[in-house]
Task: structure prediction
Amino acid sequence: MTQTPITTCAIVDDEAVARYGLRSYVCKTPGLICLAEFKNIAELEHYLQNNIAPDIIFMDINMPEISGLDFIASNTLESAIVIVTAYEEYALKGFELNVCDYLLKPPSFTRFLQAVDKAGQYLGYKRGELREDVIFVRADRMLKRIRVSSISYLESLENYVRIHTDTEKIVTRITLKELASSLPAQQFAQIHKSYIINILRISSAESDNVLLDIGEKLPVSRNFRKQIKQIIHDRLL
Result:
């Protein structure tokens, strides 16, 4: 019989009712175990000094003395952090930091399970446990999981990138260079200062443009023509 993998978590909230609600959800979720509950950040920090960080931390933001956002901004944890808050504006600020998901109080059990699933996928990605090639990007106030093979090309929008996939266009706040570093170099090539393409999606190419299998024709700048010509040649061998 296959055993359910164990995922550990901790709850940080100054409201007893909120902690109770999350704990009841944890108890109903197979494979999820709550290691500890804390009323404030100081208690969490003391715990982390003497214990391994849990896989997931469900954290309120608006707490006395040290807020959840201040803690997230000043600490680097291996944990997937899920913000739990009654204030949506705080949740949006959290997505500028290292958070996996956010739940608005009081969350439904279905939404809680979605956050747990997303956190599990994120942890698997960080640990290299996912079988298929994926990347995670922050977009639309969520952490999105994207199959690398579904990406046709990346389009630079200065400090943002539009990711063109088989099913959607995703805009994320990152530079083209930064995002390219998370993709397999042997599969993606820059053809223009504004474009990086999935070379497996090339249908045809000319000296100054390439046609992708989705019907998009993109320009090839002079600086990248030799490189693209070599890529096309190697694919035909």
